[in-house]
Amino acid sequence: MEVISTDLAIIGGGTAGCMASYEARKQGIDSVVIEKAKVRRSGCLAPGVNAIYSYLHDGEDPENYYEFVRFQGMGLARKDLALSMIKETPYAVKILEDYGLPVLYERQGRFGMRIYGEHIKPILADIARESAENIIERAYSFEIAVNGGKASGVYVFDLKNEDVLFVKAKAVLIASGGASGLYRNYTVPWYPPANAGTGYALAIRSGAEIEGFEFRFIPPRIKDVNSPIGVTAVGFSAPLVNSDGEEFMKTRYAEFGGETAPIAIRALAPSKEYMEGRFPVYINTEKITEEQKERLIKLYLNAWPMFYLFIHARGIDFAERMLEVIPCEPYISGSHTVAGIWVDGNRMTSIKNLFAAGDAAGGVPLKHVGGALAEGIIAARTASQISGNGITYTPEEKTPEFGDYSWKDAEERMQTVLDQYAGGISRYYVYNEHSAKVAVSEIVHLQSLDLGGRAVRVLETYDRLTVARVMLEHMIERKETRMPPFQMRSDYPGLSNSNYILVSRFDGSRFTFRRDYV
Amino acid sequence: MIVFDYDLCIKCEKCEKICPCLAIEMNEFPMLAYPEKCWHCCACIKECPSDAIRLRLPPHIGDQRYEMLVRDERNEMIFRILFDGEPVDEMRIRVRK
Predict the structure, then answer these.
(1) Which of A95, A116, A118, A415 to mutate to test the interface with B (most CBs of B within 10 A)?
(2) Nearest residue of chain B to residue A44 (CA atoms)
(3) Rounded to two decimals, what is the model's pTM?
């Protein structure tokens, strides 16, 4: 087995991972980036992004950002993480600008920085190429080596020649994003199908703590094309209306803040309009001028280009035919809710020398791109402080095992089960103790199968099942409705305002929980 | 979904290598081996040096006669809408300083 030695092994060459390689080099340590696809266009930023949300503008107090995310998280956000993160964002954006990213220095909402971000990922890839000692592409990280309570490296399955290699490192950073493809989707997915929750699964299997997995993220989106509505709603102050022309955010959700209510409520409200029959739901774009329309389409070209095709193919003229809005299926991602691997202020997980950053790490809702960049930097900086020379760990011979039960059949069953028993779209996001337990038994059954087929697909399916299992255990453990529709139970329907985030640990056979009070 | 024009394809394999979701595989020509894994992100379309890949909406959401082509001109990206193969609209955005 080939062994590669480095200081910092970075799992995932995305937003957080590329930035971590930059900071590692700056701090004088070597890094190796392990990427499943190709760093130039991998991860969430493959199509681009039109603003760095979570950016600390000149003169803005970091405390205000914390207040903002706490409001968005309906009271649940970790202050230490929010403050340390937001402070790093101007530094991170400056690096991107130095490498060629056009930064406009205009606000997009209170904590957003407008950019021309179509090329942000190729630019991040340039940064990683200059910074990392080695980038291993087409390689799937499948197990963290933990030795004497410390992370000592990562086992990697090379998808090109189907060999196993070991990356031995003083520190390991999980920066592989969140989990897409758990639930059945009704149209193109919100979050990249590449993101299989691999980082979460690696952390869970190595016994690291996980937090907030009961809070799934359900984004309200433009119907069918599944493009963001924030650009239109925030950038152009366009209100949501139901089939009666009622601006229901104002009339029915004033107590939560109306059009600017927390993100969960902005998903709950349109789904209720559907459930109660007042659909379609629209975002009222009648007042958008021709000039604004062109600007709006360009914003989408920077982030979700399919939108441009969509408005042509559907003959959508903003003045006459408005855009429809609907929430899509649930996801698990540290980018938008507190769900993720538990980390301390230095972004170290509960396992020594194992770090997590970006969508893989939990604790801050609406972390977005700025937060992922910042956390990559913080994690690499901490990793550079680890003393000692060399790791004594001797890697074992390990090979993922492949069977003959089709990964695709298992995936379909998982997506159906979660949709129907664990609060998917078809159940309007509601679950109860009984239904979640049905889902657990089905997921456990799927985990017992020997999956076969294309290696990458098999490994992704196992990772998704691991994530689904932990998500369900969290959903069962939280015996209240805390954040509808992200976490919403029919057996405990009253809205609670409890102030804890659930933290779990899996020892290989059972789950234990603790509560992190915020 | 993406559609390939094998008359234009030069089999350079760039689309297969760039796909963030590993949804494209090479046979003699590239093919979308895992349609359900396609994110519709256009990475392959932008990477294709011969305009051989176009984006269509999934059939359940829109008119199949419309397609989108994207060309990477290094500092600028050109997006073109086609109807029955003929260009009907075009937009350009700046992507690098």
Answers:
(1) A118
(2) B20
(3) 0.97
